[in-house]
Amino acid sequence: MKAFLVFAVILAVAVAEMHEMGEQFKGECMDQEKVDMSELKKVQLDDPTEKLKCFIRCLFEKGGFFKDGIFVDEKVKEFLNKQAQKEHMLAAYDDCKNIKGTNDCDTTFKMFLCMERAQFSH
């Protein structure tokens, strides 16, 4: 249950941050990955579905943060420089950016979790 609550907060933060880049990304990604809000609210942090992972990948790609299987350093750093804890988040990004998953969806999800954990560690 605790994992679910933490994940719900993480997901809410991610969706809110993506709102800055355009509400249409969320809708487009939900359509593309065939997920709805009720599914996003039910997910488990320790056992995410492939649909959820691909939803996160879609948000990263549409935001310009992820392209052709790699993170776009310039775009990510530009975004992080606007955050309240920018030094902490930039350091976390440097620690997290080389994480690789089994596919692009898994890679972006692992990066997302790494960054969110770093954000909540302070």
Automatic annotation (TrEMBL):
Localization per record: Secreted
GO molecular function, one term: odorant binding
Protein name: Uncharacterized protein
PANTHER family (alphabetical): GEO07291P1-RELATED, ODORANT BINDING PROTEIN-RELATED
Recorded family membership: Belongs to the PBP/GOBP family.
Keywords in alphabetical order: Secreted, Signal
Biological-process GO terms, alphabetical: sensory perception of smell
CDD domains: PBP_GOBP
GO cellular component: extracellular space
One Pfam entry name: PBP_GOBP
Source organism (scientific name): Megaselia scalaris
Native organism taxonomy: Eukaryota, Metazoa, Ecdysozoa, Arthropoda, Hexapoda
